[in-house]
Amino acid sequence: MGELIPLFPLGTPLFPGVVLPLQIFEPRYRRLVRDLLSLPEAGDRRFFGVVAIRQGWEVERVAPAAALYDVGCTARVRSVRQQPDGGFRITTVGGERFRLVDVVVADDPPYLRGEVEWLAEEEAAEEAAGDTDGLLVPGVTEAAVPCDESLDEVVAAVARGSLDLLSHAVRDLFTHYVAEVSGLGTGGDADGGGPAVDAETAVRLDAVGDDPTALSYLVASAALLTTDDRQALLAESATRRRLTLEARLLRRELTLLQTLGAVPVPLQQFAVPMTVN
User: Fold this and answer.
1) Which element (helix H / strand E) includes 126?
2) pLDDT digits over 229-248, tens only?
3) Are 92 and 75 in contact (CB under 8 A)?
4) What is the pTM of this model?
5) Would you list the domain boundaries of the chain?
6) CATH superfamily entry for domain 3-118
């Protein structure tokens, strides 16, 4: 059995370290906030799981497990402000990634809950580099390594250097991408509901400094990508592989921007009210 946590479906994924403000007005999610506020403030349980909606706009009208992507991210509550109408304005920050094993639907509590298993980040340099065998020059063996270093240490050093180069390349691509999008005068989100590419992005880029993992999550959350693209980035546990995919996506988006002068159209623009037919 995995751990059971509250779920909050959204139109786009949440990423670790990314700030997510929410206005809570639906009765079931008002109840969710009240349940979280009833927990000890000093504890670490004031969070819920954000999962992106794979299909449809009303998850409860279809099978929830089929309507949601299977990898999500916790939203840790940082501030809560109650509104005169009984709703809440809350600020959350992305926390830990998880895989959704099952969805629990019940009358009490009225919100969805998910059975989840937690996903580990591959933070070690050699893990983040993926296949470290390919990082070594053919013919380099233990005998060729200086006596005060092990082969594993050399592999880790090469991996770290490779990750730094990749991180700088993605940063440069993203900076160019932000400039191109700003030049079009658009700051909208490809699938709606997510962060926009705007002047604030430059400030956030400075804030991540030289942290490749933080950079990868900033790019994933701020670039005007489809939900499928963002979901693939969220599901990737290795920073190096996430950055590699982002480099590919940013080059694709830059080509579209420069040749078509356009960004993806929000899918919600095609939504129509549901009918009985």
Assistant:
1) helix 125-128
2) 999 999 999 999 999 999 99
3) yes
4) 0.79
5) 3-118, 125-260
6) LON domain-like (2.30.130.40)
